[in-house]
Amino acid sequence: MNPSSAAAAAAHFSPVSSTAFRDGLARLPGAVTVITTNGPAGAAGFTASAVCSVSDSPPTVLVCMNRSSFAHRFFAGNGVLCINVLSAAQQDLSALFANREVAMDQRFARTPWQACASGAPGLDGALVQLDGRIAATHEVGTHSIFIVELGEVRLADAGASHEGLAYFGRRYHALGASSPATQPA
Amino acid sequence: MNPSSAAAAAAHFSPVSSTAFRDGLARLPGAVTVITTNGPAGAAGFTASAVCSVSDSPPTVLVCMNRSSFAHRFFAGNGVLCINVLSAAQQDLSALFANREVAMDQRFARTPWQACASGAPGLDGALVQLDGRIAATHEVGTHSIFIVELGEVRLADAGASHEGLAYFGRRYHALGASSPATQPA
Question: In chain B, which residue's Cα lies nearest the Cα of A53?
Fold first, then answer.
């Protein structure tokens, strides 16, 4: 940003309210994922939708996480994580890993998983497991942005559900072979 | 990340191939948006799916953009942008703003829009327009991550389409009132 445009933008700027922010973001479709880690700090997993692709060179994605979350220290301490992208058949896992009353060991006891290359739990049946190391962390407001370089990508077996799961308008939507609007441009 | 876990993670790490990365990311559902800007550097807009919520305090989102993109300098120069979240009725705009053969002025000439508070074009009919200023930029590999503080959130009129649009499995999916799998947990 050059100084003159930054100054012009800043002169008129006031932030939107939290309510307007949340109502607006409810209209941004997002993936439903469970982010997991394991290592010296211990095992943890939480449900997240703030995940996106960054760059394929190096192969990099990002995950946003509230620093005040109970699980945050496990991720910062282990330096590795796996993004488990849930299928339409896995809404129960979204609820399980978002439930603060269920201890971390109980979450993993109720969910079949296999360790990924990083050691993070890869949840059985996930559409894809995106496993890697935290290459950098940027702090923004209440959240950390974990920049994750991928070391392993595991696609679900052919026998598993391949319907996707999105969150939009404050509810889940299945993304199946029967629901595409058209082919891409 | 503590030094010992970083060392342990680094010892076994090698990045996945670009092909594995792209096949994996094709299974991550994403929004379909047109990111716009205007100001001293000129008007520009491009189609993007790498957008996510960061924090509601301050109200912040992020957008990832390839630095080698023709449009990059407009965003860096203006320091403001609007994320137009497309509805299921706006797939034509996704194609228009991804078409390198259509000049920027022609894109906006073919699309009804109104300037947002920042000056960035807000596209008529978008499910929501998330308008703000670029508060910080982080460079990761080939891409810039724009950290955007929101100054205006405009929801579509009641008369507009409220069906969402997602990209998953390399095609579009409509997210309508008829397609939810269940209510959220």
Answer: B50
